[in-house]
């Protein structure tokens, strides 16, 4: 039986091209568990070893943000407008969407929110 592959998103296609130089965009997915992403964080890195010069985040309350085509289009527009040559993207959800210092006190090792499995 022939396996049908899900088409790659515009972001996946950009990431699949590999490193093409700087500036580079780093993309990370966050969610309450390892199945549903509710936040995307993007950092623009101008040169090797540099800290991100610009950060942007997108959030959704319901559903999976990775399937929201409007947000993906905003993200692609953001990346293009910054002249990004390379996209580095996590292949999975890497943590909960809550931020230390914003959603819970600085210095806590883990998110205390009961809905977060991470």
In the residues, how many domains can be counted?
Answer: 1
Overall 3D form: globular
> What is the highest CATH level, the class?
Alpha Beta
Q: What is the architecture at the second tier of CATH?
A: 2-Layer Sandwich
Task: Enter the CATH topology name.
Answer: Nucleotidyltransferase, domain 5
Helix fraction, binned, reads 10-25%
Mean pLDDT: 83
- Number of DSSP helical runs: 2
* Biggest β-sheet strands, sense, barrel: 4 strands, mixed
Structural category is alpha+beta
Order of the strands making up the biggest sheet: 3-2-1-4
**What is the N-to-C succession of helices and strands?**
HEEEHE
Gyration radius over CA: 15 Å
Number of strands: 4
Distance between the termini: 37 Å
Give a verbal description of the structure.
There is one protein chain. The chain has one domain (about 10-95): Nucleotidyltransferase, domain 5, CATH 3.30.420. About 15% of the residues lie in helices and about 25% in strands. The chain is built from two helices and four strands. The protein has helices spanning about 10-15, 70-80; strands spanning about 25-30, 40-45, 55-60, 85-95. Strand 1 and strand 2 (about 40-45) form a beta hairpin. The longest helix is centred in the middle third of the chain and has 13 residues, at about 70-80.
């Amino acid at each position: 039986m022939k396996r049908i592959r899900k088409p790659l998103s515009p972001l996946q296609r950009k990431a699949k091209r590999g490193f093409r130089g700087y500036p580079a965009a780093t993309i990370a997915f966050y969610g309450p568990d390892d199945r549903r992403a509710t936040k995307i964080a993007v950092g623009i890195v101008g040169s090797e070893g540099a800290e991100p010069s610009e950060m942007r985040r997108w959030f959704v309350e319901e559903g999976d943000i990775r399937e929201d085509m409007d947000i993906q289009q905003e993200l692609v527009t953001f990346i293009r407008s910054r002249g990004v040559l390379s996209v580095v993207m996590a292949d999975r959800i890497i943590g909960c969407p809550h931020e230390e210092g914003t959603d819970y006190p600085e210095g806590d090792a883990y998110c205390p929110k009961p809905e977060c499995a991470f």
